Each structure stands twice: as C-alpha cells, then as structure tokens.
Amino acid sequence: MSEVQDSLEIKFRLIDGSDIGPKSFPAAASVATLKESIISQWPKEKANAPRTVKDVKIISAGKILENNKTVGECRSGLCDVPGGITTMHVVVSQLPQEKEKKATDSVKQKKCMCVIL
C-alpha cells in the first residue's frame, strides 16, 4: 500500500486531445521533471513541440503547477484512487519571437500590390 502512496500514475492531455503516458512518477519528483518527461516524449509528428521546460505549463485540478513543487505537494487536490490514473493538462507557450513572426506574416499576406507596366 505504501508503494501506491509513494508514486502516482500520470497521463498528460495535450491541447488537441491526445495523450502522453500514462507513466508512473514518484511523489518526490518535481514538476520540472514532469515537464522534461513531456518534452522527451512529445510526438514527433505534432507541431508546436516545446523546446524547454519554460515553454510548458501543466494544469492539474484547475491550478498551474510550479516547477519547484513536487508531485506529492501537488497531489492534495487530486483524487487518490488506488490504481487510478491522474490526467494533467499540458499547455505549450509560443515564444514571443514566433508570435511576432506569425503576426508579421499575416499582415504581409493581407497586403495587395498592383504593378502597372
């Protein structure tokens, strides 16, 4: 029974509804460790892959989890169902440079040019 309390089965739900996991994490694992796991397991065919831990936000029980917290500390709001799997939502932040580039590209696409010869 103590083995169940010392670890948690977690799957990560991506924005498109697909999942990464489930995978077992010890209660002492940090949220940053969860994020590193997400980055390493990110499906290669999906766009918007996170590059660093800072690009990833994990939401559990309606709260954004902080990197310095452990799974055990974040567990209080979670349902502890023996043998159950906890689903955490993953949000990937776009880099400011990418946002500016997309905005610039969309402005360029909307311009119309005429050339009279």
TrEMBL record:
It is found in: Cell membrane. InterPro entries: MUB (IPR017000), Ubiquitin-like_domsf (IPR029071), UBL3-like (IPR040015), UBL3-like_ubiquitin_dom (IPR039540). SUPFAM superfamilies: Ubiquitin-like. GO terms for cellular component: plasma membrane. The keyword Cell membrane applies. Keywords: Cell membrane, Lipoprotein, Membrane, Palmitate. It is a lipid-anchor. Residues 6-115 form the UBL3-like ubiquitin domain. Pfam families: Rad60-SLD_2 (PF13881). May serve as docking site to facilitate the association of other proteins to the plasma membrane. PANTHER family: UBIQUITIN-LIKE PROTEIN 3 HCG-1 PROTEIN (PTHR13169), UBIQUITIN-RELATED DOMAIN-CONTAINING PROTEIN-RELATED (PTHR13169:SF27). This is Membrane-anchored ubiquitin-fold protein.
